[in-house]
Amino acid sequence: MKRWRSGAARAGLLLGVLLVLAACSSNNNKSNTSAPSNAPSSSGSATRAATVLSTAAPASTSRIATVSPTAASVSGAAKSVKIGAAFSLTQAAAQYGATQKNGAQLAVDQINAGAVPGLKLTLDVEDDASTKDQAITVFQKFITQDKVNAVMGPTLSNSAQAADPIAQQAKVPVLGVSNTGTGITDIGDYIFRDSLSEADVVPQAVQKAQQKLGFKTVAILYANDDAFSTAGYQAFKSAFDSMGIKIVDTETVGTNDKDFSAQLTKIKAANPDAIAVETLIDAAVGITTQARQLGLKQPIIGGNGFNSPAFIQRAGQAAEGVIVGAAWNAGATNAAGQKFIADYKAKYGSDPDQFAAQAYTGVFILAQAMRSANSTEHTAIRDALAKIQNFPTVLGNFSFNDKRDAQHQGVVQVVQNGQFVPLT
Predict the structure, then answer these.
(1) Cα gap 288→1, rounded to integer Å
(2) In the chain, N or C: fewer CB atoms in 10 Å?
(3) What is the pLDDT of residue 1?
(4) DSSP secondary structure string for all residues of 283-321
(5) Does 163 lie in the same domain as 146?
(6) Full residue range of the structural domain in which residue 286 is found
């Protein structure tokens, strides 16, 4: 009797094991035909069976773990992109760099929130200190240490002429967002800019101002120690010469000069109908205010260095009537521009300027190139940038020409009641 019970028990136990295995096989087959291989089963018996068999089936567990990350990558994870931005946060061009940083960061935030699907941007902003040497150091860091996908900046043309060759040699694309000097893109085929050159903007400003004011003689005052101002002087001189406007005096200053009385006294003696000034913002404020203090009432036509609300704030009443050629004006912009202004004011509590608009646009241009190329590789970005045509931006419909320079409509503005408005 005991042997029979013992045998029956063994038989019952064997039968139970066979029934469990059959149930597991059935549940596994159902799972394979009715759900993805990496989806959890809703069956309690299947869960218990998986628990029972886990030590006996390591190959199955390994296979499921391999499938999950593969499925995630196929679903389209966003491409991670590093952009290095060299902006002047200190020294002579700090006023421009501050708004450039704001504009670029606003664009990055919007893109990461879904404005350009498939990209996740990281913006690394470094201070180029408005100097060639620091710009070189920052570019070297971006390229050799940070391994960025693209570089924006530096703020000044002087700095770009020194630092851009480093990126060109390393074949890293650069997008200048404020460089207006001559020959920037001649550095190489990886160098682009979304900023209109002084050679593009100054002639428009001169022509519009002359039509409005009818001046026949002019004096020019410019900083001869930086590439941006020198390029602006050449653009002014060429425009005046081509229009038959007589240049009665030409004076030079240094970017960091504070006292301009000697140069302005000579200009006063020459008695021109108008005065053209090409300097960065500190000298622009000093020249404008001191000219009015010395009794010079002639209209002043400024270069790109005047294009900041800070110029108006600092020069005060002396800024009234100053005419400037610009790439962008808040009062003459498109629907995208109006949204940009509202978003910028909401985030930073102040109005954007041309430099903020160009930096903001620059980030979207780079993102468009990466999306078009479906790549974040340097050469692919470069090739895609070169093909951008009629791209809608805050600056208007934007294209690169065959020299990788910006093409879009500029604007001539005048300071009126404490703000820049289009000159009509």
Answers:
(1) 119
(2) N
(3) 40
(4) HHHHHHHHHHHTT--S-EEE-GGG-SHHHHHHHGGGGTT
(5) yes
(6) 199-326
